[in-house]
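#lab-general

N.A. 3:47 PM
ok so I finally got the sequence cleaned up, no stray characters, all 118 residues accounted for. can someone with queue access submit it? mine expired

B.Y. 3:52 PM
send it over

N.A. 3:53 PM
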Amino acid sequence: MQILRRAEYGAVLLIALWFYAISGASWWLFALCFLVPDFTMTGYVFGNRAGAVIYNIGHSFLGVIALATFIHIYDQEWLWPYMLIWFAHIAFDRMLGYGLKYVSSFQDTHMGSIGRQK
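B.Y. 4:20 PM
back already:
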């Protein structure tokens, strides 16, 4: 089941990349911004609970949907590339098995445990 889930997120990543490619946005922008959502890991300096909340805000598709809705309602077309980069980042993480975090530990995710097992 895990392989199927990762394959689905791989397909989502390809769709995001395809939309980015046809948007005409710069691939330099993509490379520069792709890892920006990972800065949410710094929330863990405040403990597991705060870290999980902050990380999950940056790695939830709900944020991407909210941004897409904002772009559409307020006609802010210049934000589309950033939304697609964020979308691609989340899909890439999920394809690799990194999911939303539980407060118990950074390694405990909704997709299973990551890292070395104890």
